Amino acid sequence: MRILYIIPGFDEGGAEVHVLNLIRELHGRHEITLATCGGKLEAELPDDVKIIHLPVERKNIFTGLYCAGKLKKYDEKARWEIIHAHSRVPAWIAWMLSREVSAKWLMTAHSLYSLNAGLIPLKHADGVICVSEAVRRHLQNHLPRNVITIPNGIIPPDFLHKDFSHEGMNKFLFVGRLTRLKGLDVVLRAMSELKEYAFTLDVVGDGAQRTELEALTRELGLNDRVKFLGAKNREQVGLMMAESSCLVFPSYSEGMGLVVLEALAAGLPVIASDLEALREFASGELVPSGDVGAWREAVREFIAEKKASPLNAGHITTIQEMAELTEKFYVSCS
After folding, report:
1. pTM of the entire predicted model
2. Are 206 and 228 in contact (CB under 8 A)?
3. Cα Rg, the chain, nearest whole Å
4. pLDDT tens profile 172-183
5. Taking the C-alpha atoms of 257, 258, 261 and 263 in order, what is their torsion angle to the nearest 10 degrees?
6. Quick one: which of 97, 106, 107, 306 could link to 127 by a disulfide (CB 3.0–4.6 Å)?
7. How many C-beta atoms surround the C-beta of residue 310 within 10 A?
8. pLDDT of amino acid 316
9. Could you give the count of Cα atoms lying within 13 Å of 186 in the half-sphere of its Cβ?
10. Average pLDDT, the chain
């Protein structure tokens, strides 16, 4: 099968890692092309994956028409059978392109998108994949008939939390993009009220808010406890999870929460926001997102009692299972 993937950027992020893992699993059986504005994850793609650099991240109808026109030219030779969009702007481009070529098109919905005109293409898709039941419920009035839920797949961890000593440690870990949506500022403010306890926080990731968050850390007097480490590769993050005491996941909104699943697979305790996607794995209350007082108490309870959020993912989907389910869905859309 000849497949075109379209994703805005290809740097760190749950959707980007999802696409990278999917391509890695399918490339040996299919001819794959990736259209993106670019990013460092390109270096991790298999050598035989073709890459087309286009401004597919821009929220502009004329840019979208330009990208669709360029991809139509490529299709004259590639003859794609499946166009798989990830995110809303690529969905518009895929929809426009599908009207000019013979390929079927589908989208993976990774987030609880705003319910507005940006979702118009979804009704016209040959199929939509939702990464969680929460996303599917949220988008239910904007979806076509052919819909399936396929959870994000993870690579089984190389390192397990149980294999490392955590005696007397309160070493917290945050992994994610440094944007307002991820809520790291809430954790920082909560921790600033717990200076009587011994703890550290390692921040893994980069993003538009990094400078602001580093300034907030200094302002709160936490610069001797909080380290901003930038982006790390999968193996480095896996080792940090195994060596840490607890993952903090203070997001305001997530379609799934891939890093939470990775932490649970490694046996790492998690303190997590009360998000609909995570309630599927919760046996009790989670922490209200954005509530500094609630986060302060949750962190204090972990330090004092090792009490974490009551999460149990049960069977966690592997990337192999995710790829197999996606491959079958391609066939159903053809």
Report:
1. 0.88
2. no
3. 21
4. 999 999 999 999
5. -100
6. 106
7. 13
8. 86
9. 26
10. 94
